[in-house]
Design brief:
- By secondary structure, the chain is of the alpha+beta class.
- The protein has five helices and four strands.
- The chain has helices at about 1-10, 30-45, 85-90, 95-105, 115-135, and strands at about 15-20, 50, 60-65, 75-80.
- The protein has a four-stranded mixed beta sheet.
- A hairpin with a 7-residue loop joins strand 2 and strand 3.
- The longest helix has 22 residues, at about 115-135.
Length: about 140
């Protein structure tokens, strides 16, 4: 299902990341309407969090954000999780997003391979420690 969402997002030519959280009751039949909602939100340039099908009983939540260090040709799944995991880590979302933004930059700079490897290891350790401290 996630692969189908990724494939459909690649056809939408807005250079943004999508942060997506799916509930357990999200089904294959929800994929197309969700992708249409994401496309409409991307066109509106709205940075708020959105819910599908509604905010009272959501099957999915998503937000869109522009990358800081790279240019994207289409909507790109930046992160995904189930909604229960997101509820546990909601306070760390900005910190995780910032770490991912910094990691992206490591792969676009013209520096040596060892620096990229070292930075990636530091980011993964940081993400692991954030997740571990929350649980």
């Amino acid at each position: 299902m996630l692969r189908r969402i990724q494939d459909q997002l690649r056809t939408i030519t807005f250079g943004k990341f999508v942060s997506l959280q799916l509930a357990e009751d999200f089904t294959e039949q929800d994929v197309n309407p969700l992708v249409r909602l994401i496309e409409n939100a991307a066109q509106a340039d709205d940075a708020s969090e959105h819910s599908y099908p509604d905010e009272f009983d959501p099957k999915a939540n998503f937000s869109l954000f522009r990358p800081r260090n790279t240019t994207l040709a289409h909507l790109t799944l930046g992160s995904s999780a189930d909604m229960d995991w997101r509820d546990l880590t909601g306070e760390a979302e900005a910190q995780i997003r910032s770490s991912l933004d910094k990691a992206i930059g490591a792969f676009t700079w013209s520096n040596d391979a060892q620096k990229r490897i070292d930075m990636t290891i530091r980011i993964f350790r940081k993400l692991y420690s954030v997740r571990k401290s929350i649980l």
